[in-house]
Write a structure and sequence with these properties.
Shape: globular
Structural class: alpha/beta
Number of domains: 1
Number of strands: 4
Radius of gyration: 15 Å
Helix content: 25-40%
CATH class: Alpha Beta
Largest sheet: 4 strands, mixed
């Protein structure tokens, strides 16, 4: 057994909320699994509390779990109740295909109407 420092674990996912002039940008990268969904929820709560719209950048996501999609649907509903929108700023073809199969693609419009 060694007492030295352990290497950093490989980053499986990244969830980040960036504030921009046009609104908040929720960045999802890597494997947005059940563990990541809790972080997505925390950042979605922050985005919903802000008096701005929000967008998703999931261009770097390998996949997005059903639990994370549920959080994003709730964020979209919370923003809609304030007259704001949740849009996709940077698309991911694999995630989009999964949403289409689930019948949810229309709930995540692409910014600028493309998609």
């Amino acid at each position: 057994m060694t007492n030295g420092p352990m290497p950093e674990p490989t980053e499986l996912f990244r969830v980040e909320l960036r504030q921009q002039e046009s609104g908040d940008l929720l960045i999802l990268a890597g494997q947005i699994n059940l563990d990541a969904a809790a972080l997505v929820r925390d950042e979605a709560v922050r985005a919903a509390a802000n008096a701005r719209g929000a967008a998703i950048d999931w261009s770097g996501a390998e996949y997005v779990s059903a639990s994370a999609v549920q959080v994003l649907l709730a964020l979209g509903a919370a923003l809609a109740a304030k007259g704001q929108a949740l849009e996709v700023a940077n698309e991911n073809a694999g995630v989009r295909r999964a949403l289409e199969v689930a019948g949810l693609s229309g709930r995540f419009p692409v910014r600028g109407g493309q998609g």
